[in-house]
Amino acid sequence: MRILINQKNYKYLPRQIRKYSKQNQKLIINWATHPPRFKDAIYFLQEATDRLILHNKKFEIYNVPLCLMLGYKRYIKFDKSKFKKVGECLKCNYTKECRGIFLNYYTIYGRDEIKAIGWGSFLTDLEKCMIKILETENNISSERVLEIAKRFTICAGCSDGNHVLTTGQKLIKKGKVKRSFKKGVYYWTLMK
């Protein structure tokens, strides 16, 4: 089965997916000759994709630059269309895997929505949650991070100090957080 995303149907993708999820065929999702802007359609495409994943369906999404749907990278493919790599593409860590913007889209809309992905720029839900906690209360112990985490629904939640330590380590490498050790306790501080 094939769905072509166009300017008229992109808002109905989740509804279309519901119809196809009852069938057992592989679904191919691609952009039509006159596609909608990525920034308008990506939300609906992600919602439809989540529904396909939930129902364990086989599918592929074609010709979406990886920077726009990085969390869905394993489902994104590129066909034999002509593509253009813009300046941001050349700075991106995924420049070898991603073909850029398909040429038809580029001639209509240009490149405004493309953003280079650096290893430090992508944050997991746990990392986003820890940053939000440290924005609420900075320079706090791991124990206090766990207490404050109960207020937020950004991630599945930290259940123990190991989650805080692991997430904190990743944020240190990304230059977002620093850690200090005082009287046998780790303290976490958001970098400004």
Structural features, described:
The protein is α/β, with parallel strands linked by helices and 192 residues long. The chain has 2 domains: 2-81, 2-Layer Sandwich (Transcription Regulator spoIIAA); 125-190, Arc Repressor Mutant, subunit A, CATH 1.10.10. Helix content is 36%, strand content 17%. The strands form 3 sheets. Strands 1-2-3-4 form a 4-stranded parallel β-sheet, with no helix packed on it. Strands 7-9-8 form a 3-stranded antiparallel β-sheet. The protein has a two-stranded antiparallel sheet with strand order 5-6. The longest helix is centred in the first third of the chain and has 17 residues, at 38-54. The mean pLDDT is 85.
Helix and strand topology:
Layout: E1 2-5, H1 13-20, E2 27-31, H2 38-54, E3 59-62, E4 76-77, E5 83-84, H3 87-91, E6 101-102, H4 103-109, H5 125-136, E7 140-141, H6 142-149, H7 161-173, E8 177-182, E9 185-190
Parallel strand pairs: 1-2, 2-3, 3-4
Antiparallel strand pairs: 5-6, 7-9, 8-9
Helix pairs in contact: 1-2
What's this model, at a glance?
The chain is α/β, with parallel strands linked by helices.
Helical proportion?
25-40%
Count of structural domains: 2
What's the number of extended β-strand segments? Answer: 9
Question: Helical stretch count?
Answer: 7
Report how far apart the termini are: 49 Å
List keywords for this structure.
single chain; 192 residues; alpha/beta; Transcription Regulator spoIIAA; Arc Repressor Mutant, subunit A; 2 domains; four-stranded parallel β-sheet; three-stranded antiparallel β-sheet; 7 helices; 36% helix
